[in-house]
Structures are given as structure tokens and as C-alpha cells.
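Worked example 3 (structure in, sequence out).
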């Protein structure tokens, strides 16, 4: 299973950025600058959250997790631009081609790991 340090760092950076934005939102609220607070909130819940989701999907694909183990079935479907972003990240950082429909449909890819019904990866010895 391949762990890509670039995407792992990017996930952590995005989480840290969200923390900083929440702090600035609280400061804007305290200063009663509601326009700034709304703009910060929209950025955090729009662009930043979407980028984090795309990055996590690419990272988990590269680690060999099936799509069903990464996302809940009730989650919103990704838009075409987000799918392209995930595919681009996988191609850039892993050098492989992600076939989105195959991954979502549960077709195995070369690095697939075994996952139990709860979505928890099994030990490699148990899979063999």
C-alpha cells in the first residue's frame, strides 16, 4: 500500500486552514463584521471543504481503499469538475489513471485492499 506524503501533507494543510478560518470568523463576529464573517464561512464551507474532499478521495484511492469504504452512500455526489480534480491528483502524484466509474462501481484496481463490511481494512495476512 502506497502512502503519498504530498497528499497526506495537503490534507493536513487543508484541515489547519479550516481551523484558522474558524478563528477569523469568530474574530469577525466579535467585531460585528458580519460581511467578513459570511465571506470566510462561505470560503470554508465551499471551496475549502470541496478541496479537502477531493484530496482525501485521491489519497484513499492511491492507498487502495474502495470508494464505498471512503464515502457514505448518503453523501452528495461529486460534480464533474471535482471528479476531474481527483483524477488529476491521482495522475500527478501516483502516475496511474483513475477510472472513476470503475472505482465507484466497486471494480478492483491494482492496489485494492480488503475491507470488511464495516469499511475497516483487514490485515494483509487475513486477505491472503
Amino acid at each position: 500500500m502506497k502512502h503519498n506524503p504530498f497528499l497526506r501533507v495537503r490534507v493536513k494543510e487543508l484541515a489547519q486552514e479550516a481551523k484558522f478560518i474558524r478563528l477569523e470568523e469568530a474574530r469577525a463576529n466579535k467585531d460585528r463584521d458580519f460581511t467578513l464573517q459570511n465571506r470566510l464561512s462561505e470560503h470554508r464551507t465551499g471551496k475549502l471543504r470541496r478541496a479537502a474532499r477531493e484530496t482525501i478521495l485521491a489519497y484513499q484511492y492511491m492507498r487502495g481503499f474502495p470508494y464505498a469504504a471512503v464515502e457514505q452512500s448518503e453523501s452528495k455526489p461529486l460534480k464533474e469538475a471535482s471528479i476531474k480534480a481527483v483524477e488529476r491528483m491521482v495522475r500527478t502524484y501516483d502516475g496511474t489513471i483513475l477510472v472513476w466509474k470503475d472505482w465507484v462501481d466497486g471494480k478492483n484496481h491494482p492496489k485494492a485492499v480488503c475491507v470488511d463490511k464495516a469499511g475497516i481494512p483487514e490485515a494483509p495476512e487475513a486477505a491472503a
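Notes: Residues 69 and 119 are 5 Å apart (CA to CA). The helical segments are 5-30, 34-63, 67-70, 80-94, 100-104, 124-127.
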